[in-house]
Amino acid sequence: MSERPRVWVSQPLFADVLARLGEHFEVEATREVTRHEPAAVNAILRRMDGALVTLNDPIGAEQIAGAQRLRAIANVGVGYNNLDIAALSAAGILASNTPDVLTETTADFGFALMMAAARRMSEAERWLRDGQWQRWSFDSLLGADVHGATLAILGMGRIGQAIARRATGFGMRTLYHNRSRLPAAVEAECKAQYVGFDELLARADHLVLVLPYSPQSHHLIDAAALAKLRPHATLTNIARGGIVDEDALCDALEHDRLGAAGLDVYEGEPRLNPRLLQQRRVVLTPHIASGSLATRRAMVALAVDNLIAALGFGPRAGDPPSPINGGIRDRG
Ligand code: 8YV
After folding, report:
1. Ligand 1 atom with the shortest distance to the CA of 265
2. What is the distance in angstroms between the CA of the first residue and the CA of the last residue of the chain?
3. What region holds the D-isomer specific 2-hydroxyacid dehydrogenase NAD-binding domain (predicted)?
4. Catalytic residue list contains 287
């Protein structure tokens, strides 16, 4: 009997969801949350036919060097800036991600984070826990309205559109900017108007970042962009930390040139820029926008489907549901 393919699961995920991998493969699973060294990943991947990884695992040329058997990398997450797609494609390795299943949950969280920042919820809770309620006054902790305000969405993919749909229930005006303009029917369904980048910033009451991270979007929200926002505006980031220049953001907050910020992602996560922790008017969460139990399970299930199919097994053998570089020549 020929040897079964070997796959690596880089982080502890839901064991019962992963169990399907065992029907087809020899599975080697990491038991603790781990930041693997590139050399360790390389040593593992040289023995593997496939791997299921998360955003904790950068996979590029260094990690796949000499990994002759490796044919598939399934990323648990819609964003895949942890993968060097050019290097994977050049090596004939099929990469996949987990879109769609997290759209609504992530949009819920983005909307909630924007509201929490606008209404100063974290600051209010810290104030309460510090025992300061005795000094409550009528003008304590006043926030900005969300209903009826102008929502500005930068990046109008599936999650951006889902946030726009939520905004209609709050009577908001939604503006968006995107690499390309959406079809009129989608704009109408989301009740969203396309504007240029500068106009988006200038008119925003609440700016929400939902765009992919790339060299082009690195520090797109820098001091110059922040200066275009109005001083009462809020900034919410559920995309990737590297899109925002965090020092420029702290400068803007410290000089009252920005109303508030809600951040779920950070440039050096899990390490935080210490200046962010000093800001009063920020809500900080640890990259949990897709983190409902049902959604995280669905993400792992989709990654499992992708890996099984990419390695030529299951009902969709050879046709994984959500490939990233589907056009590559399979070297198998
Ligand atoms: C995930 C995310 O938690 O999907 C994404 O792009 O950032 C999050 O939903 C993360 O990718 C897990 O690997």
Report:
1. 7
2. 19
3. 111-289
4. yes
